[in-house]
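Deliverable D5.2: sample structural annotation.
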Amino acid sequence: MTQMDLQPPDVAAQSATTPVIEMQDVSITFGAVRALSGVGLRLLPGEVHALMGENGAGKSTLIKALTGVYTIDEGTIRVAGEEHHFSSPAAAQAAGISTVYQEVNLVPNLTVAENMLLGREPRRLGGIHVRAMNRRARETLDRLGIDVDPTSTLGEHPIAVQQLVAIARAVDVDARVLILDEPTSSLDADEVAKLFTVMRTLRDQGTAIVFVSHFLDQVYEIADRMTILRNGRLVGERTVASTTQLELVQLMIGRELEVLERLDREVAATDARAGGAPVMKALGVSRKGSLEAFDLELYDGEVVGIAGLLGSGRTELARLLFGADTADHGELQIRSERRRLRSPRHAIDRKIAFSSENRRAEGVIEDLTVADNMLLALQASRGWLRPIPTGTRHRLVAEYIETLDIRPPDPQALMRNLSGGNQQKVLLARWLLTQPEVLILDEPTRGIDIGAKAQIQQLVADLARRGMSVVFISAELEEVLRLSDRLVVMRDRRKIAERPNDDVSVSDLLEIIAGEATSPQEEESRA
């Protein structure tokens, strides 16, 4: 399949517009690994262009080639028709190419204005002209419609505002091209809407924006065109309007999404209560400033989906159920016995496992091998004075690498060298090795490609089928609905609804979250 095979007529028509960026036949090799092979990318002025592909498809490598982090082995890069060879990110920035990464690389103890003009501060009498700096920052923020006090300390603002400040900093250097790498991964719906407003403002002002995201709905909401990569090669270039989501996914992964279709048929609303006593029961569990009094029952063999916007209390609930945070009030019952979980170690001993949403800070140990990361929780449960026998180590690691299709299938590979999806699989293997009865998954598919996401969703369904109780937290409501037998909806750090997953739609959930619908639970409580 060639690029021209994929181009609809409207893409060809746009070819008359001179691209602000044109990469042709770009190839990069790392040792014996061909990271990019003959890849191209065209960016037009005043468009949002999505760069699509699974983890490992070559998106990050292509961005680093464009921004001067990597030197290309073959091919050409043209900016406004003029060929360039960028030797550093500074050289790319001088040509009008700026990047804002998923992790905001700013200085939290400086002001918004100081961050925006760091290294480019206006000077007066040998010192920084603070008034001029604040005025210039204010003008840029106003132009983008960002309502932030330039004299306020950056660290006082939520991550969404810090991301907008990072974009304002990039725009302040007169960027013709703005690259946004997974900018929405930590944002809730309202924050995403604000970001998209800024992106549209920049687009209308003529800036070309590269948008990298795993959220397909967001891509279809904001992007005009897309370039699709697979295994370091160009699959094609398309307009968003002419490509269905199913077509896009098939182009990205090179196969049909049959696994998701099977999940839709297999997971349905069930009454787990008919199976006996709950494996875990939370009664009035609360923590000041984190979660209001919360009741929850978990039964064997069911998936309980926790739905709600970012900041609704989903993660706070998960941490209380695992003992990572201690509840101020209420109690937990595990197999009908009252328990006080003072630490995660106590939870592990009671067959409870928790995979955190913060994979980098609370899960992955990048400098350890796949095997060491995988066996960490099991070794902790045995105690460090009782090392796992070598033969057992090899057998368990090999079994889970094969079962979860972890790539590369090398137990000695460093975790830092794995894609996000494969890192997530290793973390799941870590907890499955402890043979838990309750598995709490907080955003297990965030930031990973559609293929790995489908595999993890299938694993969750299989675990429930074998009798495990799973708490599944995700910002993607479609994913929660696809997997969950029972739904718990949260808002403002409290539970507002609980119901079986019986003919519930995304619109239904959104209405409950927004307070525009009355759930069966609320109706019963008012009666």
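Annotation notes: The mean pLDDT is 86. Residues 359-435 form one domain.
The annotation will be released with the project's public dataset once the embargo ends.
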